[in-house]
Amino acid sequence: MTNNKKLKVGIVGLGNIGRHHLSYLPDMDRVELVAVCDSVTERADEYAAKLGAVAYYSPDDMFAKSDLEAVIVAVPHYDHVTIAIEAFRRGIHVLCEKPLAVHVNDAKKVIAAYEAAKEQHPQLVFGMMFNERTFPFHRKIKEIVAGGELGQLVRATWINTKWFRTQAYYDSGSWRATWSGEGGGILTNQCPHNLDMYQWLFGLPERISGHAHIGKYHDIEVEDEVTAYFEHENGMVGHFIVTTAESPGTNRLEIVGEHGKLVYEDGKLTLHKNTVSMLQFSRETTEAWGHMETEVSEVAVDTTVPSGHAVVTAEFVKAALDGSELIAHGKEGINSVILANGIMLSSFIGQTIDVPFDYDAYQRELEERIRTSKFVKAPVQQVKSDIEGSFSK
Asked: Residues 279, 162: one domain?
C-alpha cells in the first residue's frame, strides 16, 4: 500500500539557498510546508504569506510553537551546529546544507547529538544536502570507479577553478569571507561539494599537504586560492586545485588507474582504456620505451534523469516517511570538513599532516584568527544575484 502521508517541513534561513529550496518545496507531493524562519522579520513574513506557512523569527520559537516534523537548515555555517542539535533534541528530522560544520569538533558534536536523540527517536533521519551526488556525470563516475573498471587507482587530479567570485560578491554580506562569520573561504563556502565528491569517490587520504593563499586576489581575510596534495593508503595520490579568482575557469577531473584514465571536462566523460594493465606491462615488457595500445571512447551518460536539490530533498522525505535510503547521510558530512580543516591546518603550520590529525589544533588556529582579526569589512553592497550561477558546472 502506498504511504500518502505528508511530512510537515519547516525551513530555517531564507537567504539565497533557502529561497532556492522554497522554489520547489511547495510542488512536492509529500511535503507540507508549515513554517519558515528568518531573523529578518519582513523576509519571513513575506514568504510565509506567499506559501501559506507560519512565519517565525528564531529557530527555537519555530521548534517550540510549530508542529513541524522535519527542518531544512539553510543558515550561515556556524549556526548549522546549534540548530541541528536543538532539532535532534526535539526529535525533528534534519536536512542540513553544506558544510555540516566549520570545524571537525563541531561536526562531531552534531553527530553525537543525533546518536543520542536516536535512543529516544529510533526513526530519526539526518541528511546532508550533497546535491552534486545526484548529478548524472558524477553518478556515472562513481559507478565506474566503484565497479573497478580502472583497476588499482594511482592518481586523481581535480582542477576546479570555475568558482569565479567578484569583490562585489564578497561585499554583499557582513559575514561573508570572515573567520568569525563564515569560518573560511573557498573550502568552507564553494568547495564542500567537491570535497565530499572526492571522499565519496576515493575515501579520505592518509596524509595531506595544503597550500592556501589568504586574500590573494580579493580584499578578504580567508583563503581564495588553494592547492592540496593527498596521499592515500593504497598508494594513490590526489591533487585538488581551486580558486575564486580565475575566469575563464576550468573544471577537469582526471582519474588514472592501471587499466586506463577517466576524464570529465566540458560536459563530456571520456574513458581511455588500456588493453592490458599498465603496471603489469611495465613489469613484464622488454621494451625500454614501450607503450600499450589504448582505446578511447566517450562514456554515454543519461543527462535527462532528475538531479539537484529537489532530488536530495525528495529522498530525505521518503527516508523520514518510509524508512528508505538517503542520498547522503548526515554523518558523512564530517569527511568533507576533515579534508577542509586538514588542508588549512597543513597550510597554517607549513607541514604535511597525517589523517586523522589534531582537531583541537585546527580549532585553536581558527579561534586565534577570529580573536586577532583586524579585518574591516567594506559596507554591505546590494548585488545582482542569481543563485543558479553559483552551482558547480
From this structure: yes
